[in-house]
Write a structure and sequence with these properties.
single chain; about 450 residues; mainly alpha; Ammonium transporter fold; 16 helices; about 70% helix
């Protein structure tokens, strides 16, 4: 009797929904305008909150890879940089990245104006965007801006002051990132020249890596990182469980990062493409982790967990420039090379005495270069030469402006804590509280 009743209810529900389903399609059977609008908006929102969750991933990864005396500082930096990015991208960044859309009435408005993103109940044809809600598009794009700043945080850990760092975040999220991203995603000169970066191997990840590189050079290495004869000294992190959790969170968030960058979910083809992007993204991450797993065993005689974690992230960065066109086999190979890059470029940075606490430069900058370059392998519309032109154009711009910004901040505010404060830990020196007070002395 229960099964029969449920079946009857299902039939009645299907009959009731039939007119609505008909309205959702046009005469040819394709999705109607409003249906496509709704699903693409949903893609932006789901992708956006998955990328937002990556902020938690960066926070946990960094908290695990720094020493316990600096954990509170890293957590403070991560929640602060995201919040600053959200405000700066609204006030300045979005307008620089998409100048044609900045003054659209009803959803952005002038600076400091309190406006709604859309009138309630507006029809798609009456909105600024004819394919998704303006609010969802803005929300999604903001998350990429904030991610760029998160990359810088880990590299400069354990010796940079809080407020000078946040001052740089203002410059990065309000000006540097939006300007270089406008060259491609804002319809600028790189887009017109044929450069291709699907979800941001260069525009987001390498850009964050170049900014981190500039900061690391201006800031200098941590005390005790390099001996007098120039050899690198291992400085273990405080909690590899947190670092592993952070990596898995980032891996999850990347499905929104790459999948949402399809920018459409209004047709069967779009949904199929999103599913392919998910599969390729996952394959590249897995291959990066396995490559690092094997190579650290072969190279060092034992597996290095931190390298495996960064290998997965490097695989993700490598596939981000083109997660749709490759086959699963190609995506796996692309990710594996990314994992190998981490294993062999981390020691290279140490030879150059560039102290990158979490390995963000190899993961985001060097793997970003690889991912951007190899786009032409699977994407017939891209050329290897133009991919390099785009990468180094953005890289030079971000590095030079970031280096100047860090140098100015250093001269005006000071950039680095004192030697005593660095030795005692930034948690007490900068924050006055510790993440693990039960382990403190006295």
């Amino acid at each position: 009797m229960r099964q029969k009743t449920l079946t009857s209810l299902s039939v009645l529900a299907a009959a009731a929904l039939t007119p609505s389903l008909a309205l959702a399609q046009d005469a040819s059977g394709a999705p109607g305008e409003q249906t496509a609008y709704i699903f693409t908006t949903l893609l932006f929102l789901m992708g956006g909150f998955l990328v937002f969750w990556m902020a938690a991933g960066f926070a946990m990864l960094e908290a695990g890879l720094v020493r316990s005396k600096n954990v509170t500082m890293q957590l403070t930096k991560n929640i602060s940089l995201f919040s600053i990015a959200a405000i700066m991208y609204y006030l300045v960044g979005f307008g620089l990245m998409y100048p044609g859309d900045w003054w659209i009435e009803g959803w952005m408005g002038p600076i400091f104006a309190v406006t709604s993103l859309e009138p309630v109940g507006v029809a798609p044809a009456d909105t600024a965007l004819d394919y998704a809600s303006a609010g969802s598009d803005f929300f999604f794009q903001l998350m990429f801006c904030a991610t760029t700043a998160s990359i810088v945080s880990g590299t400069l850990a354990e010796r940079i002051k809080l407020w000078p760092f946040l001052a740089f975040v203002v410059v990065l999220t309000g000006f540097i990132y939006p300007i270089e991203a406008s060259w491609q995603w804002g319809g600028g000169w790189l887009a017109e020249a044929g450069f291709s970066d699907f979800a941001g191997s260069t525009l987001v990840h390498a850009a964050g890596g170049f900014a981190a590189l500039a900061g690391a050079i201006v800031l200098g290495p941590r005390i005790g990182k390099y001996s007098k004869d120039g050899k690198a000294q291992a400085i273990p992190g405080s909690n590899l469980a947190l670092a592993t959790l952070g990596t898995f969170i980032l891996w999850l968030g990347w499905f929104g990062f790459n999948g949402g960058s399809q920018l459409a979910m209004g047709t069967i083809g779009d949904v199929a493409d999103v599913s392919r992007i998910f599969a390729n993204t996952n394959a590249a991450a897995a291959a990066g982790a396995v490559a690092a797993l094997i190579l650290t065993q072969v190279t060092y005689g034992k597996v290095d967990l931190t390298m495996v974690l960064n290998g997965a992230l490097a695989g993700l960065v490598s596939i981000t420039a083109e997660p749709l066109a490759p086959s699963l086999t190609e995506a796996t190979l692309i990710g594996a090379v990314g994992g190998a890059i981490v294993v062999y470029t981390v020691p290279l940075l140490d030879k150059l005495k560039i102290d990158d606490v979490v390995g963000a430069i190899p993961v985001h900058l060097i793997a970003g270069l690889w991912g951007t370059f190899i786009v032409a392998w699977s994407n017939d519309g891209a050329s290897y030469g133009m991919q390099l032109v785009g990468f180094f154009s953005i890289g030079i711009f971000v590095f030079v402006v970031s280096f100047i910004a860090f140098s100015i901040i250093k001269a005006v505010m000071g950039l680095r804590v004192s030697e005593e404060e660095e030795i005692n830990g930034l948690d007490m020196a900068e924050m006055g509280m510790e993440a693990y007070p039960e382990f403190s002395k006295g």
